[in-house]
Structures are given as C-alpha cells and as structure tokens.
Amino acid sequence: MSTLEIKDLHVSIDTEQGTKEILKGVTLTIKTGETHAIMGPNGSGKSTLASTIAGHPRYNVTSGSILLDGEDVLEMGVDERARAGLFLAMQYPVEVPGVTMTNFLRTAKTAIDGEAPSLRHWTKDVKAAMENLKIDADFANRNVNEGFSGGEKKRVEILQMELFKPKFAVLDETDSGLDVDALKVVSDGVNRAAEQNEMGTLLITHYTRILRYIKPDFVHVFVDGRIAEQGGPELADQLEDEGYDRFLVKA
Ligand code: ADP
Ligand code: MG
Ligand code: MG
Asked: What range defines the domain where residue 162 resides?
C-alpha cells in the first residue's frame, strides 16, 4: 500500500497586483485503492491543488508538504513525479505534432517504468484498453491530440492512465464537457484502474454528476483554499440537493 500525504499546504501565485495566497492550509491523506472527491465552488482553489501536485511552476508552495510514501514530491521534477507513480492528467502535452499516439504511449511508458514494455504484452494491452474506452483503432496512428474533440482527449487521458498504471491519479474536472455516454466510458476506466491496479484517485469536480458513476470513499468540500468539511459519499448527495450555499455563508 502507498500513501500520498498533503500536509498544511499553503500555495501562492504572483500576480500583477502582488502575491496572492490561494491554498491556505490543505491537509489530506490518500491511500492506494481509495477514491477521494474534492468538490467545491468555482475559484475555491481545486485546480491550484491539482497543478501544485503536478509541479506547475506558476504555483509557489510557501509552506507545508506533499509526501509520497515519505518521499518529498515537491523536490521532484515533473518526470520524476510520474516515475514515482503520480498520474496528473494536465502534465501531458496538449498536441504533439508528428508524434503518433502509439509512439507517444510507448515512449512515455518506457520513461515511467524505466524499461521498455515487452512488445507482445504492450500491443495487447493498448488494444484492450482502447477497446474498453471505445477509442477507434485508427487513433493509434494519429498524432497526439491533433484534431481530437474534447471528449476524445478525455478518453485518451484515461487511456494513458490505464496503461501507465499509476499509484495515484489526480483528475481535475475530467467530467466537464462530456456527454453521458462518454462520462460512463471514462468513469468505467477510472473504476477499472482503481479495482485492478489499486489506484488511489483524487477526483476534483464542481458537479456531483460524475459521482453517480465513480463512487467516492471520501468527500472533501473545498471553500476558499481550505477543506471546509469532510465526509463520506452521503456528503456528495447532500451537495447535489443543497448546492454550496451553506459553505459560502460560512466562508
Ligand atoms: P477552482 O479550480 O476551484 O475553480 P482555481 O484553483 O482555478 O479554483 O482558482 C483559485 C483562485 O486562484 C481563483 O481566484 C483564481 O482566479 C486564482 N488563480 C488560480 N490560478 C491563477 C493564475 N494562474 N493566475 C491568476 N489567478 C489565478
Ligand atoms: Mg475554475
Ligand atoms: Mg478548476
């Protein structure tokens, strides 16, 4: 079992108006096999948390820590984070001209594992994962993300997640812009990875819709850069009925 520990994390960004603190002390522990949903109103800092875990240079950690099995994630470069077992959807390139999906996936898998996957298994794994995610076979020969629709990009993101077999995945608004069929395919992919590979998931979302397909073990409500309340799946149901008003008054 592995553990991702976020401890009293404070994060700022530099803006033209000066330094702005966005995360104001976030503490959260995720174990492999667990699914945590982070929910909250727009602007509460959810994406900032995802970007900080991903190592985006814009976000300055002013105090606190992120540890993966005791190793300091904040000291790791972006590639090292992937090799350590973190999957952060946004670290992958938006478009890679001249690089086919097949080559990209194999190169990335080799970099993450430190060795090339056996060709026989790999070809089979890619084919199976593409079928599971209802990705058309000709995508393999297309250039990475070039001309992909929003829904296709999301499926390809989950394809990478299935193939790279991370310990932890951070999925930020993976549900946005998906129709119900695509949402179901993407959710099935996340659920499969959680079950088969014991992946831990940090599922960040504004809406409760995706939580009908991906059942969280824990729900954290994010308000103004902090976790304002934590609970089980029933908290998501409550938010679906009541919205975030109660938290906004408190904040
Ligand atoms: P959420 O994902 O919950 O909607 P964000 O993390 O995107 O929240 O944003 C939190 C706050 O930080 C917002 O007020 C947003 O305007 C601000 N913010 C985040 N990233 C930047 C940035 N790169 N430049 C300026 N402001 C930012
Ligand atoms: Mg936002
Ligand atoms: Mg966001």
From this structure: 33-52+73-250
Does residue 2 fall inside a structural domain?
no
Radius of gyration of the chain (CA): 18
Q: How confident is the model at residue 150 (pLDDT cuts 50, 70, 90)?
A: confident
Indicate which atom in ligand 1 lies nearest the CA of residue 204. Answer: 2
Per the structure, the count of domains in the chain is: 1
ipTM value for the complex:
0.93
The count of C-alpha atoms lying within 13 angstroms of the C-alpha of 55, restricted to the half-sphere facing its C-beta, is: 16
Q: What confidence tier does 229 reach under pLDDT thresholds 50, 70, 90? A: very high
Say yes or no to pLDDT of 147 above 80. yes
Ligand 3: distance of its center to the CA of 115 in Å? 34
Element (H, E) at 98: strand 96-100
For residue 238, is it left (φ>0), alpha (ψ between -120 and 50) or beta? alpha
**Contact yes or no for 203/210 (Cβ under 8 A):** yes
Assigned token pair, 94: 């938006």
The verdict on residue 77 lying in a domain is: yes
For residue 173, what pLDDT is reported? 86
Smallest-distance ligand from the CA of 222? 1
**Hey, how many other C-beta atoms are within 10 angstroms of the C-beta on 116?**
12
User: Would 137 be classed as within a structural domain?
Assistant: yes
In this structure, which residue's CA is closest to atom 15 in ligand 1?
43
**pTM to 2 decimals?**
0.93
CATH of the domain at 104: 3.40.50.300
Tens-place pLDDT, residues 12-32: 999 999 999 999 999 999 999
What is the biggest distance separating any 2 CA atoms in the chain, rounded to whole angstroms?
57
Q: Report the separation in Å between the CA atom of 128 and the middle of ligand 2, taken as the mean of its atom positions.
A: 34
